[in-house]
Write a structure and sequence with these properties.
AMP-binding_CS; ANL_N_sf; 28% helix; GMP Synthetase, Chain A, domain 3; 14 helices; 25 strands; globular; AMP-bd_C; ligase activity; alpha/beta
Amino acid sequence: MITFPGVIAALAASARTANRPALLGNDPVTFAELHRRGTARVAELADLGVTGGRIVAVVCFNETVVFEYLIAAGALGAALMPLSPALTDTEIVALVDKADAVACVATAGVGAERAQRLSGLSTRRFRLAPAAASGVAGPDPVVPRADSTCWVSTTGGSTGTPRLFAVSHERLLTNSMLNAYEWGWSAYPVHVCLSPIAHGIGFSHAVGQLASGGTVALVERYDPAAAAAWLRGDTRAWTAVVPTMVHDLYRQDASLSALELLVCAGAPLQVGLRERVLEAGTARLVEYYGSTELGWVTWIEHRPGDTREGLVGLPVLGASVRVTGADGRPVPAGEIGRVQKSGRPYAIPLGGGVSAYEANASAWESSGDLGRIDADGALMLAGRVDDMLVIGGQNVYPVEVELVLREHPAVREVVVRGADSDRLGQTMVAYVEATADPRLTAELADLCAARLAGYKRPARFVVLDALPRNSAGKLRRSFGDLR
């Protein structure tokens, strides 16, 4: 059966791949060494009470030891829940309690001081991950069921409190295999992991690269310059990031000569940024739309000159996509509605049980995103259901306003939100990330007046040096009033 420990064991046993680099960075290992270290940690986790169906929480940067624990937890039939050190202590403890994790580990990069501090806030002990054991590997454990949970993923938290979802070995690795087939990323020997592996984009693509026998270069902490150094080498490479990271990567002075495939997700990639990437000489730019709940939904390989904002392409292999109205029925092409996916199942809510697992395989599901189907069948995203505003009785989708404001060359990013109004019920406030300029507010108002109906125009503009982002680099839409 297809499981992560089983795949790594096979790669470690093969003469062709055993001595191939699996992980590069501050603690490089071959596939044989990764397998040895992972199986050596099985006894460590068992001593902490880890058994089948339980959860191991790991507070971590992008470090080799995380994959050792993924092997060890999987070998025991348990799941790994990586957590970002960018979360506050209170947020980490809340997630650990919510998941009822039986063991909590902080990696060396996080440090003993924080592990001790977290232990003082929780009924659970956070221990510092011991150094990799020397000597021989532990005995090959019994291979877990492929439908057992291997990874507990948290939602990005960009719109509220993170939720927990369970992903099985089979679903994680099957989805990775299909992505490799469609996008062709397995042709590139090295995946540069800049995205945090405590989040879905970083974790899933790193696991997929390892499972295909490829090498992952870990950038331990978010550092675009360090990632760019890997991407200027002689080895053909690819990376998967959110749009904010694309901005940061392409601000580097030298060209990213080794970067042959850039995969972007997490938020729609603006047309201007897409063009900048393609003009910089990046051979291939792939964007996909997905979520923690749904997995991968659609994808597209962008071409120069396509100016459709919010474009995220056609359904991934094995999935169907539709857009429905308030009555749950599909709407005509071009009409905005709720985006739904069926097929190619991925995650279920943690604790959902067998019935949720089975239903997830066939039901039409939505993560709350809005979109429309273009004339050629491609999906165009249009914000979220809970973002919609009602202004003077008229429905307004903030993304429509945001797309107009992003056309101004000074605007790096924008979030449009509602504010209470006695007369209209709601008005709009546009929070704009840009360099302060006394003319900017007037120019943005003029741009909206030329492009939008009166009720769709923001009542107020707030210009900021930087908008709030979560630990994955995605924009937060839930924040207090900023002035």
